Fold these 4 entries.
Entry 1:
Amino acid sequence: MKKSIKSIFLFFILLPALCVVPVHAQTQQPVVHAVMFWMQGCPHCEDVIQNVLPPLQEKYGEQFDLFLIEVKGTPDVDLLYRVAESYGVPKEGTGVPFLIIGDQVLVGSDQVQDQLPVLVEDHLKRGGLGFPTNPLIVDLLPATAVPVFATQVLTAPTSQPASATAVEAPIEIGSVDDPVKNNGFTLAAVVMAFMIIVILYALISLLIGRLYFQAVWIVQRDAIPWLSLIGLGVAAYLTYVETQSVQAFCGPVGDCNAVQSSSYARVWGILPVGLLGAAGYIAILAAWWVGRQRWGWFSTYAPLALFGMALFGTIFSIYLTYLEIFLIEAVCIWCISSAIIIALLLLASLGSTLNVFSSTESEEDF
């Protein structure tokens, strides 16, 4: 009887985890890729990011992928001028926002607002559009930015845009292809391996009914609320970044903004991953609190719900870390921190979960 209870429990906690299989594995839909140069403090850029892009993201989801390149200083300004010249746009007519879609450029918020929605809709009907093939920027794009529709050629604008915001230099630079922003892959790989080991250890512990080691700080239930609160803080910050279109503080490791601006930052193109994480940490906190009450069956089995959520969160974090390493090719230190926290929560929930099974078996023996 006790084996059947464990089997049923393992089935139901692993079944939702199987639903984490990437949506991208399903039938591929056409995608339109574009690139936009922008500058911090530029009101026209802020207008596009806050008012033009959100409706497109809401309407098309992952079918519209915009890669942002921030102009921070002299080297970036020079690059922008050279890119603009390659499209026939004179230096005096170059400004930000500077958006490239296919072989066509849109300069200034008015052009982006008026023409981008039409271009996206048109290219989706044609079967999609890859990232620009311009050799000046191809090395800056994600590894997944393969120009699969490179044969499509559009006419570059020849008239000078009237609404462009002039690019001023010099400004202190932090180049887009700065190697510091592209590090952290070793750390991400180690964390992913750690999560896989934790899951295997947790499942084996459940199957054999005991822990191989009992680090007090891990199995103590008092570690759960503290880990959950820290994780909630991380998830809340990521939610703020993802929903308000602001730049994240990344520190010396990785490029959080590349991750948060990718199409994978939202589940099914709708739900921000940070918001999903915040809801998960709140649910884990609630399950921990219920488990400490005396509400009969509800409190007795609350640790099982906590374990199931921690297991699901860890599997989902493995998937997200995989995306960062192999598809986005950028690492978010906030995401890595959350992955470590949810794995530790899974370990911390093992003791109480095994206690539930032990008490159940004792009652059956009695």
Entry 2:
Amino acid sequence: MNKKKITYLFGAGASCGTLENPSLPLVKNIPKRIHDIANILSKEEYRVGLDYPPGLEHIKSGQPGYSFYDHQKHLIEALKWLMRESYNHASIDTYAKKLTITNKNLLKHLKVVLSCYFILEQAFCSVDKRYDAFFASLLDRNGSFPDHVRILSWNYDYQFELAFSHYSGSNQLSFNQDKLNINHTSSLPVRRSLNFGIDKLNGTTALKVVEEEDYLFISDIIPGNEKYVIEKVVESYALATAINHGEPLLSFAWESIDRLENRVNNLIYDTEVLVVIGYSFPFFNREVDRAIIGKMTDLERVYFQDLNPQLPMQRFKAIRSDLPQQCYVNWSEVEQFLLPGEL
């Protein structure tokens, strides 16, 4: 008997944890958390030294009179700027959409600063425990994923990779991304598969050090060593801003909808069951959501897992109005992600 093809659509609510075990902040709480991270960086115990680390002397030569600590102070000010703009707009994504139209240079700066924030945030917070139970259910006794399950995620974070590291035995993000068959806008080469796979629609939080072909990922850094994480983030921020040698891998889906459609089509075209977890279908994602969900021509049932599932269901209907009411299932229990065996 063939199993129905299941696609999960993850939003920010899928990485915030629960009331008892909070993890990453929801969109509305991000400005405050950016403020908190900026304050942490300002503490004396987390202050980096004046001297540049070995191998970064070329930054100093391009910034005469500028110490390594000056880059940390610059990052703190950049985080405060991001916090202010977050308060002044409905969300960071809204502001990014605005910059896509008005100021692409500032958009890149936003991506760099936002990447630094999320790398630091994930150094100080825990992994959402629901991902662990999710993988425990998906994986068979041989450690293989089911062929009939695929995942789309609007989140920039590493929750999938960090949770899976406990199963793979590796803290290397690139290793875990290969095992999870993760794609995002900057994935080269693109991982093609008709079976299990994850696509990060907004890219992933990371800074690529252009000259070294290296990446800064929190899962590649020793857990619990926050001072070391801060030093590495300041290094990457200095490379990205002082000499333009750091490239953010974070992106936004609306920047290239055609490329995104081509990338995710193999994952979702034969979807029969869609499970929406913690995603509210915001209006500024409407074009992308319509492009993706419109490709699901075999869709039979849609689950909305959320504390208030009526909201995403109503917004979904504005995107896809051809499904009968009996196709929709609201699910307000959020202690665990809905699992394939429950669908």
Entry 3:
Amino acid sequence: MTNRTRIWRDTIPSIPARPVTLRVTAVAERVLRQGHPWVYAASILRQRHEGPPGAFAVIYDQRQRFLAVGLYDPDSPIRVRVLQRYTPTPITRVWFEQRLAAAVDARKTLARDPQTTAYRLVHGENDGLPGLVIDRYADTAVIKLYTAAWVPHIPDVLEAFRRVVPMSRMVLRLSRAIQQRPAVLHGLTDGLVLDGPPLRAPIMIQEYGLRFEVDPIHGQKTGWFLDQRENRAMVSQLSGGCSVLDVCAYTGGFSVAAARGGARAVTSVDISRQALDAAQRNMALNRRIRAVAAARHEVLVGDAVDVLERLKRRGTRFDLVVIDPPSFAKSEREVRGALAAYARLTRAGLSVLATSGTLVVSSCSSHVKADEFFSAVHHTAARAGWVLREVARTGHPLDHPIRFSEGAYLKCLVAVAQRRPRRTPHVREQTNSVARPARVRVSSSRSGQDAR
């Protein structure tokens, strides 16, 4: 154990010996029996006493039988994150080790691929560890917390993880919601190296043989959008001989993949100059690949819709347009605005797409349902005079499994777009019901959001 580890360990509070005991509504009890990992504050009927973040909460059914145990957070609408149900089991370091080992085993096919050194090892609720994400970047593990209830358990999690997957470094990332509650962090900070040597330069990873730099301390999410790995590979296969536009490009994941696939020219658009500087470095890292070296790469800094409008006025057209925007809906109240934002981006992307070109557009908001998203894209295209012939609809990759409905967030549509020769009454009836999208400014790719 390093001196750095001893310093933060000294600040972590102990776990209360006395658990919080709860009774919940009949509806909540039924949902728990069906495997749902959350208990909302509004579902609690009776609570014997309070507890701090990280206390164990034991839930009993209406006949006073054990139902579940989880991590308690008195300040969160999700009051309990369920760890174990049906059978009373002590939640110890050994329990964490077993749960982590199961998650790692589920990703063994990724671990066997020497050409891919970055992937998700633990996907929160979907791996039975709600509110906890662990990503692997070469020999560095990044642990991200989405609830303060995990803070007292970090020592046990780290020790269990070290036994399952030894890493040279472990970095802590915190969701924005937790960062706003410093009192419950006990000195822990976002980007803290929990164990191992300091990180003084970006980590170099591989993704299907492509090289990328990743900043796990300051980068979005845990440093890289691991969930788009398979979609990037798909774009690579679609890019041969194409001119490609990567909208909300961030550090150029789709751009580099397109170049490797044989794109003759790639344009990366993002509001962040720093992100695009990294995109240029990532392109340079892969110039050893003949196709990447042959591709012309241009970066354009600015709001996505504004940049696309300028390209439209110039008459610039692309064979393939990729749109990977931020999560526009952090709550149900924001869904309507999010759909308007997706519609505006889709229309702007189509305005610079060549006839019979390919459109790739994705959403990473769990509050926007897949059917709503796909319908919004199709209706927007119809209003703009296009017909989309779908090539694929994709969702979550192997290392981002989904085992409860609220956990699903990623959806991506791939379609060939063709100009509609004329409006038909049927299309007019559909599109008239779609509200005209409001003016929305679009920042860098998924900037500042905590989608996992």
Entry 4:
Amino acid sequence: MKSLFLSAAVIALFSGPAMAGKAFVSNERGNTISVVNTETWEVEHEFFAGNRPRGITVSPDGTKIYVCASDDNLVRVFDSSTYEELPSLPSGPDPELFVIEPSGKRLYIANEDDNLVTVTDTETRTVLAEVPVGVEPEGMGISPDAKWVVNTSETTNMAHFISTEDYTIKHNILVDQRPRYAQYTADGSRLFVTSEIGGTVTVMDIDADGAPTVVGKISFEVAGVQPEWLQPVGAKVTSDGTRLFVALGPANRVAVVDAQSLEVLDYILVGQRVWQLDFTPDEKYLLTTNGNSNDITVIDVAQEAAIRSVQVGQQPWGVVTVE
């Protein structure tokens, strides 16, 4: 009978509800990471993340959180379960945004003050290369096959296509003023580049060899909102390639765009100065960081509607989610 009860207990344990996921929010002014439970939408922890944490991402296996500590000139690393700080990574000066390749081995980091993209090995914690790019590099995107990394340079107004095979720039594409973010579709066939001051998203089709061709631009118009407030910054596209969501900065809106026709379908009112975005792993929700209202907005992706806000730390900048 004891073994029967034990078996029943084991079955109950493994058939129970799955553990809730987490959202990690970097608070640029508060120098902390807020940890939000994505089932209850409550902040369950907050920890020190270095000075001026901005870009934030997660290792492919979900066990490590990487944070651009911009004023510390390094990437800080944390255990995603215990929040223990692990050995940091070299980043070059003033890291702002970065991307991690699907293998988890290399980080590609934009160094805003030094006009470089730094390539860092996450296992040996060494710098593999420094790639000169345009003035004030910020945005980073990576193709799904990891053969290309795209850097956007704010002052040069270009998207630089860097081959990950030899760390050289193969293509330079002029975009509108102050490009901020680069986002590939999941199949790698299209790239979106946001331009904050230009007020547009440049759309590029990508051929089989990774070469880009500009095929259109998306602009925005919201009744009652001054055009200069419509500042595209963060962007995310659904895995099926049907919807593009664009954070519009001080307009306090997220634009919903048909990613095929490039038509703007709607605008979702969120918190103040919306900056970066991330889907939960199941793409059920999209989270926005709102720097001036010190909160994140939770958007129901199917409904394309905001359903709640969650207060976090001071001046939330980036967000990443894990299961």
